Amino acid sequence: MPQGVRVRVSPPAQILLHLMLIQEFISKEISAEVNEVSFSWESPSNIALVKYWGKNLDQTPKNPSISFTLSDCKTTTSVLFKKIKNTSKIIDFELFFEGERNISFRTKIEKFFSSIVGYCPFLLNYHLTISSSNSFPHSSGIASSASAMSALSLCIMSLEKELTLIDDEFFYKKASFISRIGSGSACRSIYGGINFWGTHSDFSFGSDLYSTQISKSISSKFHNYRDAILIIDEGKKEVSSSVGHELMNDNPFSQIRFKLAKNNISKLMKILESGNLNEFCNLVESEALMLHSLMMSSTPSYVLMKPATLSVINLIREFRKDSNIPVCFTLDAGANVHILFPENFSQEVINFIKKKLSVFCVKQKYILDFIGTGPKQI
Ligand code: PMV
Questions:
Q1: Which residues pair with residue 80 across a beta bridge?
Q2: Pairwise CA distance, residues 114 & 90, whole Å
Q3: What is the whole-number distance in angstroms between the Cα of residue 245 and the centre of ligand 1?
Q4: Mean pLDDT, the chain, as a whole number?
Q5: Ligand 1 site, residue 145, Cβ cutoff 6 A
Q6: pLDDT by residue (tens digit) across 345-373?
Q7: How far is Cα 243 from Cα 146, in angstroms, rounded to an integer?
Q8: Is 287's C-beta closer than 6 angstroms to any atom of ligand 1?
Q9: What residues form DSSP beta bridges with 337?
Q10: Residue 302 CB: number of other CB atoms within 10 A?
Q11: End-to-end Cα separation, the chain, in angstroms
Q12: Does residue 169 carry a pLDDT above 50?
């Protein structure tokens, strides 16, 4: 039985890809000989504050988004590249997840490779052995595509750096660019801190093709910001994000949503600069609920919150009112709740989670994380 998985790029798809390739990101001429090499990266997940929901065919977003890069929720990926003789347009790879040969993620990786082969044609000369694992439990309902796709993209870029002459700035920019092709939100996991992805009049440096770190003039109140992830549902996602994004094409509120998201980007930037945490809580919660209202108003419609999600949301709002502690929630496209709060209130908020919220979590499970510094090569 063949060990490797063969990816075929069908001729029509190849022609289409070739026509659409963005010149800047096609790898440069090979200037070094590399026969066998291995690279390992750990890359974190990220949580959006202004959500990306709705995309174009080329995996560019319908509206810009801003996220916090996390720290402990991460994927570690190693890729062993071994030179092979190959004259076809096939990328040879095998995949191990948490030590076991894996077939369930294969289709996604095959699609990813066929979409990036035009940008990284050197991959055709190698057999790839990919070994990956997540820091968070497999069935915790935490989306791992951002951390997984960014970790894999960084390993690929490490090989490109070995083979061609590229500087660090391009290394990370292209890592974000190819991560986006794998999973849109993954492009925001390449840099630490706070990330912006998309185009917007307030961001002259912004791009739909990759994300950029927002580093200047952020209030110190957001340094080391915490994110406690309550595991309300461990099940597989009820609707994949690809299907969710597609539903936005016919959602009756989509145009107004894209406008509101742009306005919220401007508002959030002012808040991140001023450090007004009450405004931060209101905006972030409104974004999370809007994301879910879009799913509820799509055809077919989805209710992705569980009764426990709503109970937790109400208790967080009550706690914020009673304690005056600026703690708020945000949600992904699922039932789990992310609780965001400043580091100096950690003790009070963690006590509150333990006493009042953990009962709503599967096996009382929650993960304590914080804004991180971004991926690390290991
Ligand atoms: O990257 P995708 O295609 O899995 O989409 C992620 C969408 C949300 O997580 C719901 C929002 C976001 O901006 O991350």
A1: 38, 129
A2: 8
A3: 9
A4: 92
A5: yes
A6: 999 999 999 999 999 999 999 999 999 99
A7: 17
A8: no
A9: 230, 331
A10: 18
A11: 32
A12: yes
The two tokens of residue 338 are: 């992310």
Cα–Cα distance for residue pair 192/174, rounded to 1 Å: 16
Q: Report yes or no: 247 and 295 within 8 Å, Cβ to Cβ.
A: yes
From the CA of 184, give the closest atom in ligand 1.
1
Instruction: Look up residue 36 and give its two tokens.
Output: 């066998």
Torsion of CA 251, 257, 259, 262, to 10 degrees: -130
Distance from C-alpha of 96 to C-alpha of 304, rounded to nearest angstrom: 30
Please list the residues that pair with 222 across neighbouring strands. none
The share of the chain scoring above pLDDT 90, in percent, equals: 84
| Distance from the alpha carbon of residue 51 to the mean position of ligand 1, in angstroms | 7
Q: Whose CA is nearest to atom 9 of ligand 1?
A: 332
Ligand 1 atom with the smallest distance to the CA of 333 is 10
Amino acid at 353: I
* Two tokens, residue 265: 């980007």
Q: What is the pLDDT of residue 139?
A: 61
Is ligand 1 within 6 A of the CB of residue 331? no
Q: How far is CA 296 from CA 80, 127, 282, 302, in A?
A: 44, 44, 21, 5
CA of 15 to the centre of ligand 1 (A): 29
The finding on whether 211 has its CB within 6 A of some atom of ligand 1 is no
CB atoms within 10 A of CB 31: 9
Q: Which amino acid, one-letter code, is at 181? A: I
